[in-house]
Amino acid sequence: MPTTTTKSLTMDELLAESELKQLEAGDVVEGTITSVKKHEMWIDLGARGVGVVMRREIGHGQPLEIGSEITVSVIDPEMDEGYALLSMKRAAKDRGWDELQRMFEDGEIVEIVPYDANRGGLLVELEGIRGFLPVSQLAASHYPRVSGADKDEILQKLGALVNQTLRTRILDVSRKDNKLIFSEKEAVKGDMQARLTSLKVGDEVEGVVTGVIDFGAFVNVDGIEGLIHISEISWERVDDPRNYVKVGDTVKAKIIAIDKDRLSLSLKQMSDDPWLSEVKKFKKGDTVEGKITRITPFGAFVQISSSVEALVHVSEMGNDEGVDPEKIFQLNEKKQFKVLDIDADNRKIALSLKDAK
After folding, report:
1. 168 and 133 Cβ atoms separated by less than 8 Å
2. From CA 107, how far away is CA 170, in angstroms rounded?
3. Which residues is 71 bridged to in the sheet?
């Protein structure tokens, strides 16, 4: 029989022949639990040796039975004693970052449940990684519209979203910078654009008032943000939008402009302009009684009917030069005036105080 010559191989050569890669810090590997003790758990890594997971590195809710297969991350490939130092928590986190990166690259819709809120946005945890959803990335239906950027009211509105399921996309993810940012706006963008293309100026829509501020009211129209400017709330002069609409109201409005992803809406154009019918009661030369509603350096505005406001210019208050409207009129005072001119096209009526005398 031929003599078989046995060659003595080093461990490095054995590993090379078996095509096994030596453990390196950061590797994620599979192993079998061989021993579970109070402060540590021992793992058989097969041909790669043995490792230990210290108690603080054992994840929650994972199997800890002898013989169970688990995934671990290598912290130190070879301690002085010859075994590897491992972590279950880090392995879960590493897998989490990989999964989040995939979701980001695929543009996947991700459902999240915020666990807390601060004035800047919502705190989120997904795949074991903590992230953030800024206020600016909330959809129109959830954006906290408040007066004067009241921080306490913003926090209160954000708090109402805690423990709610939100559909989002990952806006930014970086394991290196430990950064994970979500956007609800990006998740609804496609649907919103599709809805926007089906709308046009002049359409009548229905929506829910989400915020009332000094210059108007915000309305959620099927996920699209709309604004009713104070000048479009009523045919009457509106001093405070809160006297006409409140948060939660369902309103019907007309689209008067579409700007990118926002609608400009009008409440008053849902009805005929009463000014056009009431102005027919007046003609040039009439003497009318009116109530002073505003006083300015150049004149005073006078209410001569429920929907018609006219202007008496400072030059029509008296024959003296340097007339001061503040000394002639008081707010809500009633006086007699003469109608000088009616410009129906531009909704303007000029009055005279001195000619009425």
Report:
1. yes
2. 7
3. 30
Task: Tell me the per-residue pLDDT of 106-119, one tens digit each, with 9 for 90 and over.
Answer: 999 999 999 999 98
Rg (CA), the chain: 37
Q: Give the CATH number of domain 274-352; options: 3.90.1150.10, 3.40.47.10, 3.30.70.20, 2.40.50.140.
A: 2.40.50.140
d(CA 206, CA 217): 14
Checking if the pLDDT of 74 tops 70, the result is yes
Domain boundaries, the chain: 25-93, 107-188, 200-270, 274-352
Going by C-alpha positions, the residue among 138, 127, 142, 143 that lies closest to residue 187 is 138
For residue 194, give the amino acid letter: A
Average pLDDT for residues 306-324, to the nearest whole number? 87
Fold of 107-188: OB fold (Dihydrolipoamide Acetyltransferase, E2P) (2.40.50)
What is the distance between the alpha carbons of residues 162 and 133, in angstroms, rounded to a whole number? 12
Query: What backbone torsions phi and psi does residue 43 show, to the nearest 5 degrees?
Result: -125, 130
pLDDT one-digit tens code per residue, 26-70: 888 888 999 998 888 898 998 888 999 888 888 665 667 898 888
Model confidence, pTM = 0.56
> What CATH architecture does domain 25-93 belong to?
Beta Barrel (2.40)
